[in-house]
Structure formats: C-alpha cells, structure tokens
Design brief:
By secondary structure, the chain is of the alpha/beta class. It has a single domain, classed as Rossmann fold (3-Layer(aba) Sandwich), CATH 3.40.50. It is built from ten helices and eleven strands. Strands 1, 2, 3, 4, 7, 8, 9, 10 and 11 form a nine-stranded mixed sheet that branches. A two-stranded antiparallel ribbon has the order 5-6. The chain is globular, with a radius of gyration of 18 Å. 47% of the residues are buried. The C terminus is likely disordered.
C-alpha cells in the first residue's frame, strides 16, 4: 500500500493551522495514549534558521504547542546529538532553543549525555548492532522534524538523513564513504511515527549548511520517511529513483518511493519549487568519498 503524503502551505502567521491540519491528517495512525514525545530536530551547524540550514525554533515552538493540545503528553523531549564540528548544547544556547524550551516547558536533550542501548540491526550492511538513545526508543510518539534542503553528500537532506545525526559516534564523517548503507542501518533500528519536513525556508545549491536560503512556504508530512523523502526530492527537482540512500532504504523494506500526494494548495506543482544544486561539486565529493573509503578498506 502506498503511503499518503500531505503537503500544505505554511508561514509564521498560519503555522499553528498548518501543523494542526498536518497532524490531524495522520491522527488515526498514532496511538491515542501519548505520555512522552521525542522530536528529532536538525541542527547541523552554527547557522540561524533564516539560512535554511537548521530547525526554526519558532516553528518548533508552534509544533510543540500543537502536540501538547492534541495529545496532552506529560513530557516532550527535543533531541539532537554532538557531531564532528558541533556540540548540541551550544547549538541549543546559541540558536534560540533554550527560550523555546522555557516558554513551552519542554526538555532539550543532548543525546551524547543520555543513556544508550544496544539494538541489533536486521540485515545490517555496516553495523550488526547500534547504540541508540533510550529516550527515542521509549517515547510513545517519535517525530522526525527535518529540513527541506540539498546536501552535497546525499543530494537531499530529509527525514532519513536526519536520523544519521543520532549515531553515537561524534566524528560521524568517517561514515560518509558508506553513507547510504549507514542511513539504512539506523533507520532500520530507529523508526519515526510522524515525519514532518519544514520547507518554510529551505536551502538550495551547496547544502546542507552553506547553501542559499530558498523560501518555499511548504510543510510536508507523512508517516514513512522513505515516502516523505521521495516527495521532498520531487519538490526540489530531483528524481528520487536516482538518490541512492532513498532507493537503498526502499530495497531494505523501510518504505516505498511511491506515495499518494494530497494537498490543499490550489494548482500545486512540483515545478514551482525546483532547487538549484551544485551537481559538479556533488560528483567531485562522491569521487573523493569513494576513493577515501576504498583506501581505508585496503
């Protein structure tokens, strides 16, 4: 069965309505008793939200408010992890997330400081088991809150790639040579109940951190990360069948590239949102990654 994807218009002024409409659309797929919620944001660099590179704290606050009103959970956790060149706690402080946490009584979680649990990876390609944050595994509702942007490693950043940030190892760049398989492994272990992509301001050209902001005013939602990312790819002007990590995840049974698109945007057309992309730089980096991986393996 094809997954349903819902695409709607979003601005700061109507964000409350946009999130409500999107979550209501998939409400029947979510368990009704939700005591804890865990939201994975995308904080890949020390860049403000208007760059299109990172989660917008204002939109996060609106999403949290909608979730609180809809599910009345006891606790909402917002999780990010340390990476090669960033520390999650510093990003929370510098990018405005502490204020949002105080305003909405939510908990900011640096995964690096949390308890991790070993989980076997079914049909693992790089890992036979992975350490994953207990807080994500035990949440009643997991929300993958990703960004609509290009990526010089994987062509697009979306929900599947967003979970790469929850690999325990700080220096995650060592896995770039096997990025498609690693993304597949982690999404086999850590599933998302809701996948929501913020395309109010995305990022084109040389993303995911230093591209150019692109205002699309879109919110894309679904329950399967493969289908959601397939839709996001088409919105950005890519053919998802040529994006390796999405195809790899479909082959491993994580989801399907085909989906049923439903939208309340009149005369919606993928052609209205095509992103610029530095394909030459992407190909160059792909060659370098492959060479580096083969050298390391040899």
């Amino acid at each position: 069965m094809k997954s349903r994807i819902f695409v709607t218009h979003i601005t700061y002024e109507k964000a409350d309505h946009s999130f409500k409409h999107s979550i209501e659309y998939f409400y029947s797929t979510v368990k009704k008793s939700v005591k804890t919620v865990c939201i994975k944001v995308n904080l890949c660099d020390y860049r403000m939200a208007d760059s299109g590179a990172t989660t917008d704290p204002v939109l996060l606050g609106t999403l949290v408010k909608v979730l609180q009103n809809k599910f009345n959970p006891r606790k909402i956790f917002v999780i990010e992890n340390d990476a090669t060149s960033i520390e999650a706690n510093s990003l929370f402080n510098l990018l405005g997330f502490r204020e949002v946490a105080q305003q909405h009584s939510i908990h900011l979680v640096n995964a690096a400081d949390e308890e991790w649990i070993n989980r076997p990876v079914s049909d693992g390609k790089v890992f036979s088991e992975l350490e994953v944050p207990r807080i994500w595994l035990e949440a009643d509702l997991t929300v993958n809150f990703a960004k609509l942007k290009t990526n010089m490693i994987t062509q697009i950043t979306g929900c599947l790639k967003n979970m790469f940030g929850l690999l325990k190892k700080k220096h995650k760049s060592v896995y770039h040579g096997q990025i498609d398989k690693v993304i597949g492994d982690i999404n086999r272990v850590m599933t998302s109940d809701l996948c929501i992509v913020d395309g109010l301001v995305g990022q084109e050209a040389a993303g995911p951190a230093f591209g150019k902001p692109k205002r699309c005013e879109l919110l894309i939602a679904g329950t399967n990360p493969v289908s959601v990312d397939s839709c996001c790819a088409r919105i950005m002007g890519f053919n998802p069948w040529f994006i390796k990590h999405i195809v790899h995840c479909q082959r491993r049974g994580i989801g399907k590239l085909q989906y049923i698109l439903e939208t309340d945007i009149q005369k919606f057309s993928y052609n209205n949102y095509k992103f610029k992309f530095s394909r030459a730089e992407y190909l160059m980096r792909s060659i370098i990654r492959r060479f580096t991986h083969l050298s390391a393996a040899g």
